[in-house]
Amino acid sequence: MKKTILLMVGLGLLLLSGCCVCNRADWPEQPVLDHMNTVQKTQYLANAKQTLINFRTTAVDLQGHQPPRQADEEPADCQREGFHCEVARYVEVYVMPILNDAEALHNLETRLEVAKVNLLSAYVLYETDNSGQARSLLKLYDKRYRKDVSIETAMVDSRDMEFATLGAAARNLRSKLTN
């Protein structure tokens, strides 16, 4: 039942996004996070994380329904239409501001959640054929957290990512992006 609902939501997004070309001028304004306190930023991160999980589930379901791509066919970029463009738009407009928020990066209550959202965003972008953007987010993750043992060994809910720790998930994505 839950998968059916997620598939329907994803299909609805796909249909809506397929009606117009991905044009940055049509994108909503980025949220202003400076006025938010720690509790509000924690809730914002939880909402962003849940949306990314929904996107990821939809992307996996859609991959099972798409015909295989030809070897010489280029992956779609965001100048075209489609679900991948909606994901890229969401990450740029709603996720990047919290990933770049200095207070959220340094606050003990939000730092781990920012790292999780960062890595989850990279996974979602990879799974929607936005490999260049996924690499950028993985580099950002590596720059900030790769040497941080507390982040790398932090436990992850297996429903969010298939790995026990953030470090294992990052290593897996790194290997996928280099292949």
Query: Major sheet: size, sense and barrel closure?
Result: none
CA radius of gyration is 16 Å
| Percentage of residues in DSSP E strands | under 5%
Question: Into which percent range does the helicity of residues fall?
Answer: 55-70%
Given the structure, what is the number of helices? 8
Instruction: Work out the count of structural domains.
Output: 1
SS content category: mainly alpha
Q: Count the E strands.
A: 0
Pattern of helices and strands: HHHHHHHH
Overall average residue pLDDT: 82
Rounded to the nearest angstrom, the distance between the terminal CA atoms is 35 Å
The low-confidence parts are none
The geometry reads as globular
Describe this structure in words.
It is a single chain. The chain is mostly helical. It has one domain (2-60, 79-178). 64% of the residues lie in helices and 0% in strands. It has helices spanning 2-17, 38-65, 83-99, 102-106, 111-127, 131-145, 149-152, 166-178. Helix 1 packs across helix 2 (38-65) and helix 3 runs antiparallel to helix 5. The longest helix is centred in the first third of the chain and has 28 residues, at 38-65. 30% of the residues are buried. The mean pLDDT is 82.
Topology:
Layout: H1 2-17, H2 38-65, H3 83-99, H4 102-106, H5 111-127, H6 131-145, H7 149-152, H8 166-178
Helix pairs in contact: 1-2, 2-3, 2-5, 3-5, 5-6, 5-8, 6-8
